[in-house]
Specification:
homodimer, Chitobiase, domain 2, TIM Barrel, five-stranded mixed beta sheet, 22 helices, xylan degradation (chains A, B)
Chain lengths: ~700, ~700
């Protein structure tokens, strides 16, 4: 072996195994501000953006200005030409903005205007918060390489309260998330404020998120103790200048657990006094505290029904104490009795429609997109449009509890779009879920939308590098539900991976097809709740033990006669809770879209689908197409090798390999199981399951993160 | 308010609030390779280090070369002068090294030689692993700004197996650590290998750590399932080129729990067969698997005594199956009966001395530095020197279970040094613990030292920025127990915070006094085990509930008569387990050092100390001096503002504030409690406790990280 002899400079990049290992670790999310590669575009930006003219007195304004400088420095290297142009930034009452005589009247408190004024560019708003949002939007124009010539963006949020819900425990475990420990380092607070709290708040603000619920809906009263309120205050102080209000979950039994009372009965005067005092105390720590999310009388959580009271009486107890401070209550509709009286699908509707009109004005019913539980696809929840007197907070799940955790690539915006655009017909055609939520259908003033966060203390925040697209998309849709999932995917991809056309086209295609893909390989054609019990990662169609509505067989009803849940009038009639127009559409297997077919109908294995195929064949082919699509995603991703950084490429490539194995496993396990009933051959083009059914039934995953049955 | 109008370039550094928030986040540990600020020194280095001449065929050699390039690039910017000098790097059998005719015969397999040869500098070893260690040592010379003129370092490790023990669970919780989740992302393995695994291995290799036990001593048999062995293999493959062997903890009842057997009796043929097969299977995944650490029949863990067998029979079962593969067993001496027969201090000695001679040659008794449990200070464990036939793995605790977790600044090397230098007199004077462990006292070939890691997935690895000094010091002492804690502190400080004289002097002084400080404000003068039960953070001198030897009162024995544990012949006679020379020294309150006084003696409150003060006064003054020293550390640290980066400065400053509050609390709680017995006034210079005793007794911390009773 002859020794090599090289000057150092030549060797550095040839052998530096780990030297650049953390160059693109994902920490910067979509706020990377990498230099614009297109030289002529960069030149044009440099010549049209002049020096900044701004007033920055509040912390929020200072943050806005710092972000603008940081963004421009990164994107353009700070070499702006002195062309006489100026970038005018500020609120309408600042002199340099006022003299432009812009009409800002439609912007409200949070909206912003990006426009040109003669040679100058303008970022204007009515508040510093609006300016901050405008700055992020302006930078987004550059990050996504849009022209500035005719710049004119005027927007304000359609929903007032746009919240992340963290299912984070005080022990730093996170329910249903896999991205490491909770970002909230409770033990170090209030002494040490992690720098990344600022970056969390920046990222949220950049997409318009203006509230965060710090604690799990499966709640712990300890967060209401003074020792923890100090910590909450430190977080609130950190988040406030980014326009982010802090909320908590309220454990209904807190008066007993930490208050020393013997009851938590919401009508008991001592309980009312305790909560009133406690809420007043919270406001001494956090003067702009947002309010509470409450999961009551559901899955073991305490609630008013434990004392013979109803949800309205429970919610109103908290709402009345919050009202003087301007706080509000999001009372979750995800409730179902421990005794199964009827199709679980129907219970929230039954409970809450009869209480409509009894809630205080500062109560919103927090309602998941569908009536079961964040399945890969659900028809919209029948409660939307069914409580004219009570607003709804739409609860979406960003973390992928039933969709492969942080291992599977699933862009969720198309699913959310489907819910938002669904028509409740509550006030005639066009009464979409989005319009129920934004208050326009019933004229509600209290409007809110919540996303269950997929964030942890992993360096890249979300584990899967693509998981951040869902955090991003949630914020963007919460601000403007009319944005399309395609537009949002395009923005996020450009900001996260750059503007190279092949990169953008490939990733966008992967993102946009990914949701249909996960549905196809796990729970296609309206199937639902066939996941492995407990950790919810992987299939468990055979699961039939314990409480029936926690099994899989309860939902798919597979037998030799066929498969599916009859929710029409001949079955549970959950369909009857929807408007007549919906009932008509979904009432027959012929009129309903295939994607919801087995959600509402029980059909023979040989039922002839719209495609002309039998149900069994269509089911098999759909499972197979999901698997094939994952394989194809792997190839698409491989084609980008060298076009994006090695670090993120390697991570996604590894995850796609596993997703493919998981998808095959899901398909094989389900088909092997359903085949025991259908007894029909697998159609051409479908790979029969690799192993006998017992193999899949016996396979057990250990220590799946985020499962509350685990320590983690 | 007039708008500001500034060119961008001027604004960037004035308002960029968060722009540089992560510049010094601690991730790089002591391998920062920042440019050498001293221009003349840099010039001199540049002129004496020529181009590298090396052979790099193995992965280890490639890593060594890459590290060298990375280090030189960082430190010197790659601008090395062509002075005719060459940096010769390689093993003795490589041509360019062989021709130098160096004597490498004393280096063994891991040692290295740094030297000059004519104009050239040389990094030579017998193996690529030795070269890797040599590269880190060479870079350390530059990082600590030592001259290269007379470079000559020749060293090899005194202990063969230098291991981290991770008390990490498969759920990613970590027992007794506060630095976030486990670094081992089990669920993502084996698919995704985190880039930071490489940096973990680099950091370990840089200080000579050559083994890692991946799992908690409170063990989980699941890690032995094939599903997890695949994951273990992925980690082993990653760590191997850095010279790091992988070990696991063996749950003694695994044959029952995952093997389907009805017994785990170590003499049962089916059990022997199961372990033999299992161990053979492990080696198919990890051909250089290191072996097992076992905690048996201790604190609820299963073990051979459950089947009427002894520790030797248990250890030998595993050892015999490991032997053909070259693996070994570290069988922990941290055992005590569930029924309290005698002073817990005595039990390990009693159990293991009678088994001496019965262990297989590939068994080492893993023995903590002291006989109780990682107290802030303990006299050395009497087992050292007491088993001439059986080697000991010295177990040190890097994580600060009883010393403020990742919140308090405590540099542990002085404490470890105290143990290593303690004389057992086993073969006459000079039979130090270090020499028992390095095998020289009894001629043992199997030598090992283990440190319980303080590492988690926090970005800076250890939570407290100073916590990394203990990881560093452990590795350095494990390599060479003759290094002084001062030398190690000097190295670490320069590598971590730079070479500015005021920075180095201040931080070194803080580090070197910090251990005595924590002892003084928590458990001075030989007091021990007076921590809060369960989470072990904070004081609990009043704790007297439950199992006596888990209480505080069992150990301090405070009453109106005095305080302390009589372990002389008039008491438990634990002292009688030591050599006569030690018994003589520690046998009277007059001859024993004050630091161990109340460990062995129960004394009247008015006992006259060497200082002339009464015991009560001395106790009070020592507590006070601990608190005062923390306050002083805060001032010392404040004086460095501006001399080190803002980010790490802010974090340590915040932590020191809290440490001061905690130290006061500890002192006040203990003095308020002991005062109920002593009934004597607080001496001048001591601040009386701020609150009545009840205040301290009623104070409860919630959700302290690392406490296994917590989810986290």
């Amino acid at each position: 072996m002859r020794p090599i002899r090289l000057p150092i400079a030549l060797l550095i990049f040839s052998l530096g195994l780990a030297a650049s290992a953390l160059a693109e670790d994902g920490y910067r999310l979509w706020l990377r501000y990498e230099p614009i590669a297109d030289a002529s575009l960069a030149k044009s930006y440099r010549s049209s953006i002049g020096p900044i003219e701004a007033v920055a007195t509040s912390d929020t304004a200072k943050i806005a200005l710092a972000e603008l400088e940081r963004g421009l420095e990164g994107l353009l290297g700070g070499e702006l030409k002195r062309t006489g142009a100026t970038l005018l930034v500020g609120t309408g009452d600042a002199k340099h903005i006022a003299k432009l005589k812009l009409d800002l009247s439609g912007l409200g408190e949070e909206g912003y205007l990006l426009t040109r004024h003669k040679k100058n560019l303008v970022i204007a708003a009515n508040t510093d918060q609006g300016v901050l949002y405008g700055v992020f939007a302006f930078l987004r124009q550059l990050q996504t390489q849009r022209p500035l010539e005719n710049l004119h963006v005027e927007t304000s949020p359609k929903v007032d309260h746009r919240l992340l819900n963290h299912w984070d425990n005080l022990t730093r475990t996170v329910e249903r998330s896999m991205a490491g420990a909770s970002i909230f380092n409770w033990f170090d607070l209030p002494y040490y404020v992690e720098p990344y709290y600022h970056d969390y708040a920046r990222a949220c603000a950049s997409v318009g998120i203006n509230g965060t619920v710090l604690t799990n809906v499966n709640s712990n009263a300890t967060v209401l103790r003074p020792q923890f309120l100090e910590k909450v205050a430190a977080l609130a102080d950190t988040f406030r200048p980014y326009g982010i209000q802090v909320y908590l979950t309220a454990r209904f039994s807190a008066p007993v657990e930490i208050g020393g009372l013997e009851t938590a009965d919401p009508l008991d005067p001592a309980v009312i006094e305790w909560w009133t005092d406690k809420i007043n105390e919270i406001y001494t720590y956090v003067p702009d505290f947002g309010g509470f999310v409450v999961k009551a009388n559901s899955e073991g959580q305490p609630g008013p029904q434990s004392y013979g009271r109803d949800h309205a009486e429970g919610a109103n107890l908290l709402a009345r104490a919050l009202a003087p401070h301007g706080g509000f209550v999001m009372w979750r509709a995800f409730v179902y009795d421990f005794e199964i009286k009827e199709d679980r699908h129907k219970q929230a509707y039954t409970e809450f429609t009869q209480l409509d009109g009894q809630f205080e004005p500062n109560v919103s019913i927090q309602t998941k997109n569908g009536a079961i539980d964040f399945m890969p696809r659900e028809p919209f929840h029948p409660l939307f449009g069914a409580t004219p007197e009570t607003p709804h907070t739409l609860e979406l799940q960003i973390t992928q509890e039933y969709m492969g955790g942080d291992i599977h690539l699933v862009y969720l915006a198309p699913m959310w779009e489907e819910t938002l655009e669904a028509d409740t017909f509550a006030r005639g055609a066009g009464s979409t879920v989005a319009k129920v939520v934004d208050g326009s259908v019933f004229g509600h003033e209290l409007t809110a939308i919540a996303g269950v966060a997929n964030i942890g203390n992993e360096r890249n925040w979300t584990g899967h590098p693509m998981g951040a697209s869902n955090w991003y998309a949630f914020g963007r849709l919460a601000w403007d539900h009319q944005l399309s999932s395609q537009e949002i995917a395009d923005e996020w991809t450009r900001m996260t991976f750059g503007n190279a056309p092949d990169v953008v086209a490939t990733i966008e295609e992967m993102l946009l097809e990914s949701h249909q893909t996960v549905v196809d390989y796990s729970m296609p054609l309206g199937l639902h709740h066939i996941m492995y019990p407990g950790h919810h990662y992987g299939p468990g169609p055979w699961h039939d033990q314990g409480r029936p509505d926690w099994t899989s067989t309860y939902y798919h009803n597979a037998s030799e006669d066929g498969i599916g849940f009859d929710r029409t009038a001949t079955g549970s009639d959950a369909l009857g809770q929807y408007a007549p127009e919906v009932v008509e559409k979904w009432g027959t297997p012929e009129s309903i879209e295939d994607k919801y077919l087995l959600w509402f109908h029980h059909l023979d294995w040989d039922y002839e689908m719209k495609s002309g195929k039998t149900l069994w064949n269509e089911l098999c082919l759909t499972y197979q197409s999901g698997v094939d699509r994952v394989a194809e995603m792997g190839q698409q991703w491989d084609s980008l090798q060298g076009s994006i950084d090695a670090q993120r490429h390697a991570r996604v490539a590894a995850l796609l390999k596993r997703q493919l194995e998981d998808a095959k496993f899901y398909k094989d396990a389900c088909l092997a199981y359903f085949h025991t009933f259908s007894q029909r051959p697998y159609p051409a083009g479908v790979n029969a399951p690799e192993y006998p059914l017992e193999h899949y039934k016996n396979f057990e995953l250990y220590h799946v993160p985020g499962h509350p049955g685990e320590q983690w």
